[in-house]
């Protein structure tokens, strides 16, 4: 009887440790945020937005949708 209680208690402790370990975050894996400063990965679409051709196509699409209202 005591052996079953010990195994059950150990299993509960192990399950609690496994569940709580998912909430742990390494201190060097934290991204510090500053207002109005983007520190994420470089966006590949940002380089495409620099070209006038894409901007003109987006402007045309916007006008096509907005003028019917």
Describe this structure in words.
- With 69 residues, the chain is mainly α.
- It is built from three helices and no strands.
- It has helices at 2-21, 44-49, 52-66.
- The longest helix is centred in the first third of the chain and has 20 residues, at 2-21.
- It is elongated and about 80 Å long.
- The N and C termini lie far apart (77 Å).
- The relative contact order is 0.05.
Q: Biggest sheet, in brief?
A: none
Structural class: mainly alpha
Mean pLDDT: 78
What is the tally of helical segments? 3
Quaternary form: single chain
Overall outline: elongated
DSSP, total strands: 0
Give the termini separation: 77 Å
Task: Work out the helicity level.
Answer: 55-70%
Order of helices and strands: HHH
The proportion of residues in beta strands is: under 5%
Q: Return residue spans where pLDDT drops below 50 for at least 5 consecutive residues.
A: none
- Radius of gyration (Å): 27 Å
Summarize the structure in short.
This protein has helices at 2-21, 44-49, 52-66. The chain contains 3 helices and no strands. It is an all-alpha fold and 69 residues long.
List the helices and strands and how they pair.
Layout: H1 2-21, H2 44-49, H3 52-66
List its traits.
single chain; 69 residues; mainly alpha; 59% helix
């Amino acid at each position: 009887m005591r052996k079953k209680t010990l195994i059950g208690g150990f299993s509960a402790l192990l399950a609690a440790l496994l569940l709580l370990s998912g909430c742990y975050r390494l201190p060097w894996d934290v991204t510090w945020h500053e207002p109005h400063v983007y520190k994420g990965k470089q966006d590949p679409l940002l380089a495409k937005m620099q070209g006038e051709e894409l901007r003109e196509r987006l402007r045309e699409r916007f006008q096509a949708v907005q003028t019917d209202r």
